[in-house]
Amino acid sequence: MTQADFTDYLAPPEELAARTGLSATDPALLDALRRATAEFRGQARTHISFVAGDTATLDGDGSRVLLLPHAPVRAVTSVELDGVATDSYDWTADGRLLFSHALGHGGQRVVVTYDHGFDPVPEDVAAAVLDRAESRLTIGAMAVQTVAVGGKSVTFATGERGSAAWDRVVDHYRLGRAENP
After folding, report:
1. Whose CA is closest to 121, among 26, 33, 54?
2. Mean pLDDT computed over every residue of the chain
């Protein structure tokens, strides 16, 4: 795969700034947003936001189907088998590249140029990333759940705020799920 621009965020810094009162250019705010974006992409196993003209280099596995590294696929503009352009393929939005014949096992090099991702980023993804980034800025990664002093106790929110919501959104967009667009 060529190096796509992985510096963009899955939510606007301005929205996180409005939530936190920090400047949209504050290094801590941008770091929290970058980390939440990277975490979402890593757990979903796909880039999420739109990338045009990305290139993936894959090895044939003896089957007629190869999985592309990112989805949803919006277009496949070229496919080469061992350096020779071919048009004997089809593709699906969920990231499958389908060939009319079985590919050589481990020896047939497949180079695919394709467009993938969402434009704009889905609102539920942006909301989850904003919640996670805001959580990083406001409560960090607290490990303490309850502190008791003199017969009184205080309970703190632990980990990241909105974990159940985060998990649902990540699971919905995770690469490899049959219902992904």
Report:
1. 33
2. 86
Give 130's Cβ-side CA count (13 Å radius): 18
The most distant pair of C-alpha atoms in the chain lies apart, rounded to whole Å, by 76
CB contact at 8 A, 16 and 41: no
At residue 38, φ and ψ (nearest 5 deg) are: -65, -40
Name the burial class of residue 180, with classes exposed (0-12), middle (13-18) and buried (19+) by CB atoms within 10 angstroms of its CB: middle
Three-class secondary structure of residue 136 per DSSP: helix
pTM for the complete prediction? 0.78
Q: What is the DSSP string of 21-44?
A: SS-TT-HHHHHHHHHHHHHHHHHH
Rg (CA), the chain: 21
Nearest to 130 by CA among 42, 18, 54, 45: 18
pLDDT in tens, 40-83: 999 999 999 999 999 999 998 889 999 999 999 999 999 999 99
